[in-house]
Design goal:
Length: about 500
């Protein structure tokens, strides 16, 4: 009897092992037959024909015998505004300027008839579209009277925080009878693309910010006939600015003139010619993209205008498309200036998939496998100015986010992003890598880590022979990296150890 029980116990163990192994064999067979190990999305701008070809000629060769599929991610739409006529090159917004015969312009105009009660701010940030010359600083007379102290109006470089010019006003000087007090300053040229701040502060014994209460607003916003664009409002000189809106008030303004009126007049006169020329370029670009797509069959056109500020939307469209149209275990996102050591990446992912299979079998209650693999930036400051200006995320720092040059997401993460793409599309964060960190902050996915990872992801052009990738490469450098990889399996060159 005991022998029978022992044999039954042994038979049970053997049966369990056979069933377990059968499960993995069956699952692995199903994966090989129906599911990709890796889906690769390579972010690419429309004009980057040579960059795309350099990748086809190099590391993408290594995917041919693997269970991998790749696409270059290209925006379907072309910005119809000529580059010279955009407010800034990262966005498809047209810059229009009204060439009036004014000798002077101002960022604000006094209009007692249109006086309204609006929230009061200590300053405003603006962007210069054509070189201007600052001539004077201005302050509302009523504000000096109410504060009964010294008030300083300053112009700062918003990026460097350097003070350019300033003027101090006091109630003792309020003898002109004008609604707007004016002080001439040394002329100073602000170049195209300059981001400036006008700041109003109390100085002396009553130093500090002006009141943020609602106040009578006599100054109406004026963009100088299109020469500047207001970007942000400042509640506190040490705080984060908020996006600009018209229902706001500041008590000071600048007076300025054009630096070269003749050149601007010529620019405006040639607007029609530039538009016609750009329309022809768009036709040529569309035809060239269509030809490349038909020949290579590896371009995924996504429903966005292909510009920098739309990269988060472009990425979301890819996640949604991938979720609805492909079966895969993992998704890799990279850029068209990045060489990926795909062999090492796949080696790690094969181990990860096997571990996932075991985890699913031993813990069937685990329904989601939310993981990502990259190098992560943590405590990254939110920029208020420049190319990476962030208007829609209110914290001082971003949540952890992966480096855009290379990261891997599990299928369940892509499914989450694809299902929520509609909600995320309207948040308009400034970059696709920081946006991904924000979208996934609430999910808090696990990071791949441990001894079984065969390489680490690089964020920039710094070369590491043990990296999964090498970023920020020119077309020539891509081919040089490929040659080094073929000769000695080293992305940095055969002289590296």
């Amino acid at each position: 009897m005991r022998q029978f029980l022992f044999l039954s116990f042994v038979a049970g163990i053997i049966s369990f092992v056979l069933v377990r192994n059968s499960f993995y064999v069956t699952q692995d067979a199903a994966i090989k037959k129906n599911k990709l190990l890796l889906l690769i999305g390579i972010m690419s701008s429309q004009n980057n024909f040579e960059a795309r070809q350099s990748i086809r000629d190099t590391w993408l060769y290594l995917t041919e015998q693997e269970n991998v599929k790749y696409f270059f991610l290209v925006g379907k739409k072309i910005c119809n505004v000529p580059p010279e006529d955009r407010i800034y090159k990262e966005a498809c917004i047209e810059w229009t300027v009204d060439m009036k015969e004014y000798s002077e312009f101002s960022t604000g105009e006094v209009d007692a008839v249109k006086m309204r009660i609006f929230p009061s701010y200590v300053g405003v940030t603006f962007l210069v579209h054509y070189p201007i010359v600052i001539r004077s600083m201005n302050l509302l007379r009523d504000y000096v009277t109410v504060t009964d102290g010294f008030v300083q109006v300053s112009l700062l470089n918003a990026v460097t925080r350097e003070k350019i010019v300033s003027a101090t006003f006091s109630n003792n000087e309020n003898n002109s009878g004008s609604d707007l007090l004016e002080k001439t300053v040394e002329p100073y040229i602000l170049p195209k693309g300059f981001e400036g701040q006008v700041i109003v502060e109390l100085i002396g014994n009553k130093s500090g910010n002006i009141s943020l209460d609602h106040s009578e607003c006599w100054l109406q916003w004026n963009n100088g006939s299109g020469l500047i664009t207001f970007l942000q409002l400042i509640r506190d000189v040490n705080g984060k600015p908020v996006p600009f809106h018209e229902m706001s008030c500041i008590h000071a303004c600048l007076t300025f003139t054009l630096h070269e009126r003749g050149e601007l007049q010529l620019h405006v006169a040639k607007r029609s010619d530039r538009r016609k020329s750009w329309e022809n370029e768009i036709k040529l670009l569309k035809n060239k993209l269509l030809k490349e797509s038909e020949e290579k069959k590896d371009i995924l056109f996504l429903d966005v205008v292909d510009i920098y500020r739309n990269l988060p939307r472009k990425l979301l469209h890819f996640f949604k498309w991938a979720h609805l149209n492909e079966e895969f275990s993992y998704l890799l996102k990279t850029d068209d200036d990045t060489f990926v050591n795909i062999g090492e990446v796949l080696r790690t992912l094969k181990v990860a998939r096997q571990e996932q299979s075991e985890e699913t079998f031993t813990h069937p209650e685990t329904k989601l496998y939310l993981r990502w693999w990259s190098s992560f930036r943590e405590g990254w400051p939110v920029h208020s100015f420049g190319k990476w200006r962030e208007d829609n995320y209110c914290s001082e720092t971003y949540p952890p986010f992966p480096c855009g040059a290379g990261y891997v997401l599990s299928k369940d993460l892509v499914q989450f992003l694809g299902n929520n793409a509609y909600n995320f599309l309207y948040q308009d964060f400034q970059g696709e890598d920081v946006a991904l960190g924000i979208w996934l902050a609430g999910v808090n996915p696990l990071r791949y880590s441990g001894d079984k990872i065969s390489c680490t992801w690089a964020c920039d052009g710094t070369c590491n022979p043990k990296a999964c990738n090498r970023a920020e490469l020119s077309v020539d450098a891509m081919y040089e990296t490929w040659e080094a990889y073929q000769n000695c399996s080293n992305l940095c060159g055969c002289h590296w150890k």
